[in-house]
Amino acid sequence: MHLFLFRYINPHVSEFQYLPCSQLREITYTTSFTMLRIVLLALVSSAFAVYDEHHLAPKFNDFCKKCIEERNGVGYYENPEDCRTYLQCDLDENLNVKVHLKECAEGTLFDGSIVTCVPCEVATCPGSKVPYPQCPPRTPPPTTTIGYTTLPQFDGKCDGPDGWTYLAVWGDANTFYRSQTLGDETRIERVSCGQWEFNVHRCMCMVPDLQAIALWPFDEDTDTKVDNFWTDCAGVELAPGKVGYAAHFNGTVHCEVPRFNNYPWGSALTISFWYDNAAHAKNEREGLLSNGNCAIEPTITMYSDRGHIGGRVLIDNNGTLVTVDLGSYGGNGWNHVALVYDGLRLKLYVNGHLSVDEIAVGSIPATLAPLYMGRDLDCEANGGFRNTNLVGFLDEVQIYDWALNEAMIARLFSGDRNIKMARTD
User: Fold this and answer.
1) In terms of C-beta density within 10 A (0-12 exposed, 13-18 middle, 19 or more buried), how is residue 250 classed?
2) For a Cys staple, 11 with which of 105, 140, 363, 420, CB 3.0–4.6 Å?
3) Residue 399: which domain range?
């Protein structure tokens, strides 16, 4: 008779926990053939209970109140006690402060300067406390919590340290199981890699392949489907689009993405989206995407002139700003746009064709403004045109922090999402 001990490895707790008997439950199952004793170890409260907003959030009421009144209104702010979490400071219908305590994804910490969770290796946590260690180990240490009695389908195995066998899980790259047999006891434990992925060939959790850093398909809601950040699209509606549904802008609403405030666009970038406004346009120029506003000049701006794409990108070449004009392309109906920059050349693909290919050595500077969708760059007349918000549609907005090649752009034009590529660094 073998004793099987199932344990779940919780990546959110940084050390092994031994539980007193009062916190364990033992369940015994008997069959007509043999006795299978499965010990299920369960925490009375899971690791996530520490983030119960009803328990901890009220102590941050004064902090949130001050942030709303003196900083930037309702929104997301650092947790002054721990940058593994952050605060959503809001007001209810009676203007009372309402606090939600949110948790960053495993391997990331909250950076209040750009209002998002960033990789722990580069996080500085302004206004908050950095945990120790700052980054979790590649394979998170085990912590006993809820047990599992049904094993998944495995997809390969490898020899781990200390006599463990690591088992890759079919269809779940962020999780693996490890098995060890000592005498008549077999232990099988479930381990999470957090945001990293298990590589059965290296037998360890690894940084995942390159992929999109932001993706708005606008099929079910206005949230990004990758990463962990907020998009404010108040008033923007969903309507039938180019691929599934799309975001519909009526000229009085827009989307803001605080995650890209002061974002280092750098020398590697791809921005892809579909737009349609020719049949709906009421103005000569309507904003599609920009990282500037009334007070801050954008370094990236794209607009539609009755269906024709236009805009510019500013490149910093050793302190000298170089302007790359995006020309005028596109037309009636849906148009696909892909802006690609690799630090040497800036390219613009329109409806699958290379329309702009300019030498532009340097990097794209950050701006102290969020990324805007459906809002133009300036409030006043600019270049003889009265700039206004979009009356039309945006769909499949995707942003990558690397330059996609021509074959990948063709895939985006065909409707693919979240193109991935293996890391070489």
Assistant:
1) middle
2) 140
3) 212-413
Task: Tell if the pTM clears 0.70, that is, is over it.
Answer: no
Instruction: Give the model confidence (pLDDT) of 353-390 as tens digits.
Output: 999 999 999 999 999 899 999 987 655 555 555 557 89
| Residue 139 located in a structural domain | no
The domain total for the chain is 3
The answer to whether the CB of 373 falls within 8 A of the CB of 393 is no
- Note whether 177 and 167 are within 8 A (CB): yes
Q: Which helix (H) or strand (E) holds 409?
A: helix 406-413
Tokens (6 digits) for 9:
């490895």
β-pairing, 387-388 vs 285-290, is parallel
Distance separating alpha carbons of residues 216 and 100, to the nearest angstrom:
24
Give the DSSP H or E segment for 54.
helix 53-56
CA distance 241 to 235: 17
Neighbours of 396 (CB within 10 A): 23
**Residue in the structure block whose two tokens are 């008549």:** 184
Q: Which of 109, 132, 112 is nearest to 122 (CA)?
A: 109
Q: 398, 271 in Cβ contact below 8 A?
A: yes
Q: Tell me the CA distances in angstroms from 44 to 11, 38, 49, 80, one per residue in order.
A: 18, 18, 10, 28
Half-sphere exposure of 17 (CA within 13 A, CB side): 22
User: What number is the average pLDDT over the span 47-60?
Assistant: 47
